[in-house]
Write a structure and sequence with these properties.
The model has no long low-confidence stretch (mean pLDDT about 90). The protein is of the alpha+beta class. It has a three-stranded antiparallel beta sheet with strand order 1-3-2, covered by helices on one side. It is built from three helices and three strands; from the N terminus they run βαββαα.
Length: about 80
């Protein structure tokens, strides 16, 4: 039913650029969902590690920073400015 797509949170001000960078990969949601921070991705167009990164980044938008830092440390991913 999802037609091989996954929705994920993404900053509203950056999503048009993301879609433009890969129009066969990334899509905007239907008009009624544009008020949310959502983008859709075709799962056939990305690798598993890319999907995991999109999910982790989206999760990082909504959780307290200390949880994000802890999870990134668990995954041994450099924290940087996050």
């Amino acid at each position: 039913e999802d037609h091989g797509r996954m929705g994920f949170a993404y900053p509203k001000e950056e999503r048009n650029a993301l879609v433009a960078s890969g129009p066969d990969t990334f899509f905007l949601p239907r008009d009624s969902d544009l008020r949310y921070n959502w983008v859709l991705v075709s799962l056939d167009a990305i690798e598993l590690d890319e999907a995991q990164e999109l999910v982790l980044d989206a999760w990082g938008m909504v959780v307290p920073r200390f949880l994000l830092r802890r999870r990134l440390a668990d995954l041994m991913i450099p924290v940087g400015d996050q």
